[in-house]
């Protein structure tokens, strides 16, 4: 009976020993290393899940803000100025808005001060919302490519304008200099013409004076010759009324050396020819010295009444002419 029980089989036909072997293979306890691997795998899966959830949440937030912004700033809703103003104050509201609009405009939109210094009082004044929006928009435009190119173009125009200003000033200076030169030349020509005119007048006047002086002496000589040939008594004539004194005024009171020398020099120069040889002044002084000798005057014109004052004048003229003649001879040496 015992053997029968040992050899008994289960309904599947397998023995008891085989059933135990199969159980031992089906249920095995995991080792410590296997538990650690499982923990690490689950941790990684959880982190990936958390990251995916966070990314989806961020995308949803960004997508929601972008949709809201696009809806708020649609062209058919707001003008460009109003849209920019709304985006500016949205960027000033929080960091997320600032980051969003910085991405839209390509540069920060919220980092400009909203105050300015009053030029009259020197105090800080706060801009209105409209003024601040326009100020920020202008500053952002200045930093854009178009603004930088416009600034370069403006500087180029300013440099060209400065160069043109310098050229214009040079032209004006040159024109003024030329005008001054022309004016100076014209004035110099006028002055020279006036001087020539005055010289001509002066020369003609001295020619007339010298000719009148010689004419009166010739008349006196003619009178002397006529009186000598006439046998009839004639009316007594005074020498003082016929004699010509060698001075510009022709008067006895002006008879001094300087006036006599000037009269002869000016009178002879008025008739001088450029081709004339010798000095007409010295020739005239020599001839006048002989004419005015007191003894010769009395000899030739003694038939005229010669008063003492007239004789003193004749003597004074002769002495002056004699002194001038001696100076001429000494210089000629």
Features:
333 residues, mainly alpha, two-stranded antiparallel sheet, 2 strands, disordered N terminus
Polypeptide structure, described:
The structure is a single chain. By secondary structure, this protein is an all-alpha fold. Helices cover about 70% and strands about 0% of the residues. Among the domains are: about 80 residues, no CATH class; about 130 residues. Strands 1-2 form a two-stranded antiparallel ribbon. A hairpin with a 6-residue loop joins strand 1 and strand 2. The longest helix is centred in the middle third of the chain and has 85 residues.
The 3D shape can be described as: rod-shaped
Tell me the total number of β-strands. 2
Instruction: State which percent range the strand residues make up.
Output: under 5%
Instruction: Report how far apart the termini are.
Output: 197 Å
Unreliable spans: 1-32
Structural class, judged by helices and strands? mainly alpha
Task: Quickly count the helices.
Answer: 11
Fraction of residues in helix: over 70%
Radius of gyration computed on alpha carbons: 67 Å
Main sheet properties? 2 strands, antiparallel
Strand order of the largest sheet: 1-2
* Topology as a string of helices (H) and strands (E): HHHHHEEHHHHHH
Mean of residue pLDDT values: 75
């Amino acid at each position: 009976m015992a053997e029968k029980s040992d050899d008994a089989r289960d309904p599947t036909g397998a023995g008891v020993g085989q059933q135990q072997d199969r159980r031992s293979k089906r249920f095995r306890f995991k080792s410590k290393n296997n538990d650690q691997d499982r923990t690490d795998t689950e941790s990684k899966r959880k982190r990936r899940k958390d990251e995916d959830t966070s990314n989806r949440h961020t995308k949803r937030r960004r997508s929601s803000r972008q949709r809201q912004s696009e809806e708020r700033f649609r062209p058919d809703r707001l003008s460009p100025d109003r849209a920019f103003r709304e985006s500016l104050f949205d960027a000033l509201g929080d960091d997320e808005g600032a980051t969003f609009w910085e991405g839209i405009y390509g540069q920060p939109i919220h980092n400009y001060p909203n105050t300015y210094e009053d030029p009259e009082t020197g105090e800080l004044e706060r801009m209105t919302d409209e003024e601040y929006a326009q100020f920020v928009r202008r500053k952002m435009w200045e930093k854009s490519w178009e603004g930088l190119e416009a600034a370069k173009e403006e500087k180029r125009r300013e440099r060209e304008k400065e160069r043109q200003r310098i050229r214009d000033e040079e032209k004006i200076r040159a024109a003024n200099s030329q005008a001054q030169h022309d004016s100076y030349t014209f004035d110099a020509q006028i002055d020279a013409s006036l001087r020539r005119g005055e010289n001509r007048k002066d020369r003609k006047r001295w020619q007339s004076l010298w000719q009148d002086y010689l004419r009166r002496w010739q008349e006196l000589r003619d009178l002397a010759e006529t009186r000598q040939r006439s046998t009839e008594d004639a009316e007594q004539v005074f020498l003082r009324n016929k004699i010509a004194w060698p001075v510009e005024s022709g008067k006895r009171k002006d008879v001094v050396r300087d006036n006599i020398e000037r009269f002869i020099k000016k009178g002879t120069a008025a008739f001088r020819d450029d081709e004339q040889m010798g000095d007409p002044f010295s020739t005239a002084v020599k001839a006048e010295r002989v004419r005015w000798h007191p003894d010769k005057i009395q000899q030739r014109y003694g038939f005229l009444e010669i008063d003492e004052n007239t004789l003193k004048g004749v003597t004074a003229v002769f002495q002056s002419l004699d002194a001038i003649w001696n100076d001429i001879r000494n210089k000629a040496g």
